[in-house]
Design a protein that fits this description.
The protein is an alpha+beta fold and 174 residues long. It is 25% helix and 25% strand. A 5-stranded mixed beta barrel has the order 2-4-5-7-6.
Length: 174
């Protein structure tokens, strides 16, 4: 064997090992990748039942129904389409109608989304990025149009302590 052929075999073997490692990594990750979809995408693309994904949008006004054993039904909308959601468990404290949420779960054959995780916005100026992007793409949501303060504004702005100093998020000394 010549030096050139040994080098070529070594390069081919390294390439095969690298391809095998990449294949194993991708196959391991395929079960944990979850895509985001808006209600419009779910209805327009005809998502196959059993598909796991994240559904994001606004909780439709008047759709929240609490049942026995922590069963909760509500609708998620992006003001263009609506998807019914069923969830069993405790909802986040800030979950309410008209607020942005992201739910993770599977679509059932009847078109109902069975969520196993529900995430709600954490303050008045937050909108989940995926939800905001989907609403912006439809021209239904603009920056600063959320019900609360704009992003970057402190929750304690304008509040003073007992000694007249501005409250910058410090605990009171009581």
């Amino acid at each position: 064997m010549t030096r050139k052929s040994r080098r070529l075999i070594l390069i081919a073997a390294c390439g095969a090992v690298l391809a095998l490692a990449l294949g194993l990594i991708l196959s391991a990750m395929s079960g944990s990748i979850v895509f985001f979809r808006s209600p419009t995408e779910v209805t327009a693309q005809g998502v196959a039942p059993g598909t796991r994904f994240r559904l994001g949008g606004l909780v439709k006004e008047g759709s929240l129904q609490r049942g026995p054993d922590q069963n909760i039904d509500f609708a998620v909308t992006d003001t263009n389409a609506t998807v019914q959601v069923q969830y069993r468990g405790l909802l986040p404290d800030l979950f309410r109608e008209g607020q942005g949420i992201v739910a993770e779960g599977r679509l059932e054959p009847g078109g109902i989304f069975r969520a196993d995780t529900v995430l709600a916005k954490h303050d008045e100026s937050y909108m989940p990025r995926e939800v905001a992007d989907a609403l912006k793409a439809q021209g239904r949501w603009q920056e600063g149009s959320s019900k609360g303060a704009s992003a970057g504004k402190g929750a304690a702005e304008g509040v003073t302590t007992a000694d007249g100093e501005p409250n910058l998020g410090r605990r009171s000394e009581r």
